[in-house]
Design brief:
alpha+beta; Immunoglobulin-like; nine-stranded antiparallel sheet; 21 helices; 31 strands; binds 2-acetamido-2-deoxy-beta-D-glucopyranose; Alpha-L-fucosidase; Glycoside hydrolase family 95 protein; alpha-L-fucosidase activity; GH95_cat; signal
């Protein structure tokens, strides 16, 4: 949905030739000379995690598009019989039989494959979508400029009209949970303003009731769908009167529109012309959805309380209701800097460009040639987007929290076979504190219903499971319809996400969090996979494998998929590494994990054309350029390949012979697979995220040229004029997918600093400095990078080589051995200890 803020009178045309006044001199921002028209290519995003908004940068008329993070159609709100896409408990016996025969068919199939697992899937039911509205605006005026200031987290529009210069600023404050839009002029007198709320552009979206709340606030109440969840927005308008302005009639008044009997109520707030020097509207929003209602005790209702009381307390809090605008703004900026820019910063030696708008810089960008300024800007923008969408109650979804219209691509859901993972890749390493909503989401919406799914679908009575496509209503079953197994058959989503849980602990060593949330999550998932691994009766090699499985979004449906085996192996290592800190005394569980880990297939096999096999049966095609790099998960973001250790991962039985690969052999095979997988423009898709993944993987292999090629190719192909990553950039109204935006910083970081996980706490953490530095970034610096083990790392380089590195260890860590490498040479070693700091200058 959207709110429209309307100003009086129209204007003449003109463009600015350099960055608009107020644009950060650091160059850290996006600027444009025309208002936005197309949502995904041109508008500018702001958000505080709870709320998101897209700012078109209109002038006399501005239509700011709003969203609330939990505003979804579908789920139990729309369909009382909604059950998370699960088989009914009464079908358990039958499902077990089906599962048994599927497994048997796969093992006994000569190819190790079968056609489908359709009989395990269920109709998605009222799956739901993140809903919101659209808006367009067309005005151009003299002295026009709009920008997103990434130093302060503010979208601004400036223009001149009737010799008066206007400035409109929009931002969402995390401390107050409100978004604010402020307008002022240099002349000190604003023309008349009116504020209305509209959902008119929302097809199928029921019009809400808009009513006056006092003389200066609009209360907007509606349903997300005809039987959907209740939402409410309160918008409060304030202004600073020009001194001596009489207050009768009132400067600000709320007027209830006359409407036909039975039609939804509608109202407007008006600010009288020439009475105020500045005016601003603050809005807060919420729904009756609650993650806390997603368990058996709440009958999976996900229903919380009416949001009104909570919103009222937010909108009447002094920081929003009585503080001056300057105070509200400075509180926002201080919070923004503390969360985003003070703890971490990067320089690629870029030269700030203030002479050309961002869309022109983007249009001039070329693969391989590159432009360090744009590359740096995209890095900062990616972190900005994660922080602006990741700090609410829900995690960032396929579009962060920005959604256009009442049906968004792929439901703007939580695709959990690469996309959501990728969203969070940069969080720990660039020191962004955004992970907690993600973990709450697993605990509250995945684990409860996923416990039922484990029972009904797999006859497993410990732990829990989910599949690929996840909504906010605990959609844990396999989402069916057509032969969707390649999307739906992904019971390793939980294992992959647990790597994030483990990493959070590994980076921060927050023991009380680990005991309360991290460990129970990992234990639940590991328990499930312990029971799900079964003996391989195709090869009879005494290993344990998954069956059925497929690589994410790719057939065949087979057994022992490399992706799944590598992930589960990493999961079991995390159990062992985290056991002592968990306080858990269940030694039998640990022993079982260790035993099955020893026995399981490790998912590392070199195939007939020198490739790393994607499946246990050697059936990879050299011309398969599929978008996912599933079997290379152990290269990046994992470590089963990157830190391959033949003493614990070797020992394969192949054709009756025991084989152990050397690390060099395994790396060579991963390289062959990566080469054959292509550049991320495949027959199946040409999206940005697959190129970001490839860039990170090439960096992991230490190949700076290929890293830079993929990074720049992704920018060239998939990033729009507003730097949003686009699925189909040539489309007039392309699809926005946030994953490439959010993965970009981690891919770039992987060229500068690498420290992949290790199988055991006794194995040294190896930090490699500048492993894949492209020649386009000869000099630069990083401040505040985070490395697992509770390490903060600063790094400077020049002439393509490190000149200075320093580490500081957190106060709350134990001893971990660490080595620092550059160009294959050990340039430092230390053992972590609380508060340790050390510098390295000998490279
Ligand atoms: C479920 O598993 C248990 C334990 O292995 C087994 O005894 C039972 O028969 C299975 N139930 C079904 C319905 O297959
Ligand atoms: C068991 O599943 C089969 C195959 O899906 C189906 O045809 C049959 O009706 C089911 N039986 C019961 C008792 O649900
Ligand atoms: C904006 O311009 C586009 C293209 O010229 C037009 O289709 C659209 O209706 C205009 N929108 C408004 C709000 O005037
Ligand atoms: C309220 O009225 C305004 C002005 O006519 C209109 O633009 C807006 O769409 C209406 N809002 C709703 C929710 O119907
Ligand atoms: C709007 O208010 C009317 C009258 O109170 C009520 O019947 C209707 O359900 C409300 N509509 C919505 C969408 O809340
Ligand atoms: C593996 O063992 C099963 C019996 O458990 C047998 O049916 C199958 O033929 C064996 N496969 C091979 C390749 O030996
Ligand atoms: C295993 O045996 C098959 C069939 O003889 C052969 O095609 C394959 O290359 C062998 N694999 C290895 C790794 O030797
Ligand atoms: C990087 O990869 C490309 C493509 O495989 C290869 O030609 C080149 O030699 C590699 N460079 C290095 C330094 O390994």
């Amino acid at each position: 949905m959207w709110i429209s803020f309307i100003l009086a009178s129209l204007l003449s045309t003109g463009l600015v030739a350099s960055a608009p006044p107020g644009f950060p001199s650091s160059g850290n921002g996006l600027w444009f000379t025309k208002p936005a028209n197309v949502w995904s290519k041109e508008m500018l995003p702001v958000g505080n995690g709870y709320l998101a908004a897209m700012v078109p940068g209109g002038t006399s008329s501005e239509a700011t598009q709003l969203n609330i993070e939990s505003l979804w159609s579908g789920g139990p709100f729309e369909d009382p019989s909604y059950n998370g896409g699960n088989k009914q408990p009464g079908e358990q016996a039958n499902t077990s039989l089906i599962m048994q025969s599927i497994r048997q068919n796969i093992f006994s199939s000569p190819t190790g494959d079968i056609d489908n697992v359709e009989s395990l899937t269920t109709d998605a039911g009222a799956y739901g979508y993140l809903v919101s509205g659209i808006s367009t605006t067309n005005s151009t005026v003299s002295g026009y400029g709009r920008f997103l200031d990434l130093d302060q987290g503010i979208a601004r529009t400036i223009w001149t009209q009737d010799k008066t210069a206007f400035v409109r600023s929009t931002f969402c404050s995390h401390p107050t949970q409100a978004c604010i839009q402020h307008i002022t002029t240099d002349g000190g007198h604003l023309p008349g303003l009116s504020y209305v709320f509209s959902s008119a552009l929302e097809t199928g979206f029921p019009a809400p009731n808009v009513t006056c709340m006092g003389s200066d606030s609009l209360r907007i109440r509606g349903l997300a769908a005809s039987r959907g969840m209740l939402y409410e927005i309160i918008a409060h308008v304030r202004a600073t009167p020009i001194s001596g302005t009489p207050t009768n009639p009132p400067i600000i008044r709320c007027v209830q529109f006359p409407v036909a009997s039975g039609a939804p109520f509608n109202a407007t707030i008006e600010v009288a012309g020439s009475t105020v020097s500045e005016a601003w509207v603050s809005w807060v929003g919420g729904t009756e959805y609650s993650m806390d209602g997603g368990d058996v005790a709440h009958r999976f209702s996900f229903r919380g309380s009416d949001p009104h009381t909570q919103l009222l307390s937010l909108i009447t809090a002094p920081a929003t209701a009585t503080a001056s605008f300057a105070t509200t703004l400075s509180q926002h900026v201080a919070d923004y800097k503390a969360a985003l820019t003070e703890k971490f910063s990067l320089s690629l030696g870029q030269v700030s460009r203030l002479d050309a708008p961002t869309d022109m810089i983007r249009a001039a960008y070329r693969t391989d040639v590159g432009d360090p300024y744009l590359e740096w800007l995209l890095f900062n923008f990616g972190r900005y987007l994660l922080m602006s969408s990741g700090r609410g109650v829900m995690p960032a979804n396929l579009q962060g929290k920005w959604a256009n219209g009442d049906e968004n691509p792929w439901g703007a859901d939580y695709h959990s076979n690469i996309n959501i993972q990728m969203n969070y890749w940069s969080a720990e390493m660039t020191n962004l504190d955004v992970h907690r909503p993600l973990f709450d989401y697993f605990q509250k919406t995945w684990a409860p219903r996923g416990t039922l799914t484990a029972q009904v679908l797999y006859n497993i009575t410990r732990g829990w499971v989910v599949h690929n496509e996840m909504n906010i209503f605990g959609h844990t079953g396999m989402k069916g319809g057509g032969n969707t197994a390649q999307w739906a058959d992904y019971p390793e989503a939980n294992a992959w996400m647990m790597i994030h849980v483990w990493d959070h602990f590994d980076y921060n060593n927050d023991v009380s969090w680990w005991k309360a949330q991290g460990w129970p999550l990992i234990k639940g998932v590991a328990s499930f996979h312990l029971d799900k691994l079964i003996p391989d009766t195709h090869f009879n090699d005494s290993t344990l494998v998954v069956n059925p499985c497929n690589s994410p979004e790719q057939v065949p449906i087979t057994f022992g998929c490399a992706h799944a085996q590598q992930l589960i192996w990493q999961l079991f290592n995390a159990v062992e590494k985290g056991f002592a800190a968990s306080g858990d005394t269940d030694k039998g569980f640990l022993a079982e994990v260790q035993a099955k880990r020893a026995q399981m297939d490790k998912g590392l096999r070199i195939g007939s054309w020198g490739q790393l096999q994607e499946w246990k049966v050697d059936q990879d095609s050299p011309t398969d350029t599929h978008r996912h790099l599933s079997h290379l998960i152990g290269l990046f973001p994992g470590y089963a390949i990157a830190n391959y250790d033949p003493t614990i991962q070797g020992g394969l039985l192949v054709n009756g012979t025991h084989l152990t690969y050397t690390p060099a052999q395994l790396t060579a095979a991963a390289t062959v697979s990566l080469i054959h997988r292509g550049d991320g423009t495949g027959p199946d898709a040409d999206s940005g995220w697959e190129k970001a993944w490839r860039a990170a993987a090439w960096a992991q292999l230490g190949n700076a040229t290929q890293f830079y090629h993929e990074l720049t190719y992704g920018i060239f192909t998939n990033f729009g004029p507003n730097l949003f990553s686009l699925y189909d950039p040539a489309d007039a109204n392309p699809i926005f997918q946030i994953d490439a935006n959010l993965a970009y910083p981690s891919a770039l970081m992987n060229a500068l600093i690498q420290a992949p996980d290790v199988a055991s706490l006794n194995t040294p953490i190896t930090i490699t400095l500048l492993p894949a530095l492209p020649k386009q970034w000869p000099a630069g610096s990083i401040k505040g990078a985070r490395v697992r083990g509770g390490i903060t790392l600063d790094l400077q380089w020049s002439g393509g080589s490190p000149t200075h590195a320093s580490i500081k260890v957190d106060e709350n860590v134990g001893s971990r051995p660490v080595r620092i490498l550059h160009m294959g040479r050990v340039v430092g070693t230390f053992t972590t200890a609380p508060g340790l700091s050390q510098s390295f200058t000998n490279f």
